[in-house]
Write a structure and sequence with these properties.
single chain; Rossmann fold; 131 residues; alpha/beta; four-stranded parallel sheet
Amino acid sequence: MILVDSSVWIDYFNGNQTSQTDWLDSSLGNTPIVIGNLILTEVLQGFQSDKDFKIAKDLLLRIHFMSMGEQTLALESAMNYRLLRRKGVTVKKTIDVIIGTFCIHNQLTLLHCDRDFDPMVKYLGLKIIDI
């Protein structure tokens, strides 16, 4: 299964054509995609118009959902953050460490367009769709 990060969904809904949004567009309905509560929140909170919010919400609620809020994941995320710091890497957004750890923990591949995930690939074994 593929977890699509909010960085890709936001570009997708804003009509920004990237290799990641092209991959997403061609994969919807053909590839098993999963969304988590943190990503769902990040994506939906940015909509200005109620109409656009409803369209996005209806699409996203059709995607397989997994909760990202368990205690084990919080502990693993903190350990991963600390490991990256020891390697000299500071991830700017804690939520990205949680998302990366969630993928590693659940053996999911991540589709993203956010450099915060690069050190997680290098040091933690995060699997990504390399486009």
